[in-house]
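target protein:
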Amino acid sequence: MKRSVGILLCVWSQLAIWPDAFGAEPLDTIIIDVGRDQQTRIAVVPFRLAPQVEGLGQMSDVIAFDLARSGDFAPTEEQNMLSFPSIPRDVFFRDWRILGVEYLVIGRAASAAEGNVAVDYHLYHVDTERMLTEDRISASPAKWRDVAHRISDVVYEEITGVRGAFSTRILYVLAENPGTSAASYRLELADSDGERSRTLFQSSEPIMSPGWAPDSRSVAYVSFETGRPAIVVQNLLSNARELLPRFTGINGSPVFSPDGNRLALVSSRDGNPEIYVMNLADRSLRRITRHPGIDTEPSWTPDGRGLVFTSERGGRPQIYQLELTTNLVDRLTFTGRYNARARLLDDGRHLVFVHRVDGVDHIAWQDLEQGDVRVLTETRLDESPSLAPNGSMLIYATQHEGKGILAVVSIDGAVRYRLPSSSGDVREPAWSPFLDALGGNI
C-alpha cells in the first residue's frame, strides 16, 4: 500500500507544474490518502499542440490526473518517458515495454473550422501492439477541459469495462462566516475534480440539501432566504428559480425521482416530520409515512418504486425502506446505534450511509443480502455521501484542520482523496448523473 501511495504522490508532484488555463486553483491541492496496491501502468504522452492552442494548457496532464485519481492507474511521469509520439507511425512499443507500461495514450490538437479545436487521440495496448480506440473530437476552446475529461472517460471504460465518470459535475454548499452578521452561503457547481467552480445562488441565509434532477438540467435545494425553509428548483441552463409551495414548519431534503417527475421531501405540515412525495406536474402532495417517530432524509430506490429513509421509530436513527404501492416498511440497518443518510446503489443490493462507530461518524457500505457492513472512511464527522453515477466512487463532506472539506472514497474503500479546500466550510456534496459527451451545457 505504501508503494502505491508513493507512486500517486509522485504523480501529484509532476502535476503541480500544470498550466492554469482557467484561473482555478492548481490541482496539486488534491491530497491522496490511500491508493490501490495493484494499479495499471499507463503513459499519457504530452499531446502535440499547434501554436494556436498552446495557451489552453496541456490536455494530457488533465487526462493523466483523471486516471490517477481513480486509483486504478499509475501514470508514467513525463521525465521518465523515452519518446514522445503524437501520431501512430512514431510509436515504438519497445520504449514503453522497457518502462513496464501496459497502455499508451497519444494525441495532438490544432485549430479547426469556426474557431474550434480538433483533438485526435489514440489508445494502445503495449504488449499486443494493438490500437484499442481512436477518435477525433472537435469543440470550442471553452470545452478544452471537457474534451480532456471525455477522453479520460473513454480510456477508463476501454480498459476497465466500467463507464468513466470524469465528465460529471458536483454540487456543494460553501459557507463563510456562518452564525455571524457576515454569513454567506453559496451553492456551487464544479467539475468532478473540484475545478471550474461557479456560484449558482448566493444568500446570507443557509442553503441545504442540494440534489440533481436525473436529466442534470435542474437542481433542487432548501433555502432560508425568506426566513423559513423553502424548497427551490433551479434550472441550470436559464438559472430560473422556482420556490415550491411552502408549508408551516419543516420543508426539506428534496430528492428527484429516477424519472424526474416527482420529488420526495420532508415536511412537518401535519405536525410531525414525515416523508411526502410531490408530483411536479400539478404540485399535488402525497403523505408517505405515518409514525410518531421522526422520518427524514429520503432517497429513491433505483426503480423509483420505493423510498429509503432515516427514522427514529425504533428509538434511535436507523435506515428503513418503504414500498410506495403497499406502504410496507422494512428496517435495513441493525449494526450500530446510529445509521443515517442512506443511498442505494443501482444494483438495489448495496447501501452507503453515515455509520457511527465509537461516537465518530464514518461512511459505510452494506450488502443488504449478506448484512455485511464495511466502514469506508477513516476521517471524522463524515456526512452526506453521494454516489458517482457509475457507482465506483462516492463523495462526502468531512472535517480537516477544523474546516469542512470534500473527500472521495472508492466503493471498496481502497482509494481515498481530498478535493481542493477553499476559504470557507464546504458541505453537502451531490454528484451529478452522467452528462453528454462534452459535459453538457451547464
